[in-house]
Amino acid sequence: xxxxxxxxxxxxxxxxxxxxxxxxxxxxxxxxxxxxxxxxxxxxxxxxxxxxxxxxxxxxxxxxxxxxxxxxxxxxxxxxxxxxxxxxxxxxxxxxxxxxxxxxxxxxxxxxxxxxxxxxxxxxxxxxxxxxxxxxxxxxxxxxxxxxxxxxxxxxxxxxxxxxxxxxxxxxxxxxxxxxxxxxxxxxxxxxxxxxxxxx
Length: 200
What we know:
By secondary structure, this protein is α/β, with parallel strands linked by helices.
């Protein structure tokens, strides 16, 4: 199946293509939809995943996959949450990933509690009224300084105690095996396989 990914994030597309290897993943720019950027006005990750999926499906009328993901930090009452990619933004000017990480570490400087989780909500919209949706997490904690050169976003400051490494210190294969997005994609693939097998 060809799935249009309701995002222009090439990092996420690369991960998703590896996780859903039985499907072809395309992004809006590959269909000359260059200005696809629906407002993420939802209150949850799942809300925003649906907003993106429905917006792209409305344009293409073809199967669409969308995700919304972010970092939820317990000591910050779940922030940055759905605003993870816009954390620290001022007057429409967003920060770079390293600047967001620095801001997060500053906000946690005097906090002994470091527990956090990555959350990923993922939706496949097969038709206007037919969809499959899942949400998964990756539990960990926030370090006091960045470590590792891999991954993207908050990966360098997100530490997984049972592995003794940050997400940025994992190989791509290791990350895909345990990440919130990896778990969500595998769960979704299994549901799609079952759903397709049961379709008339």
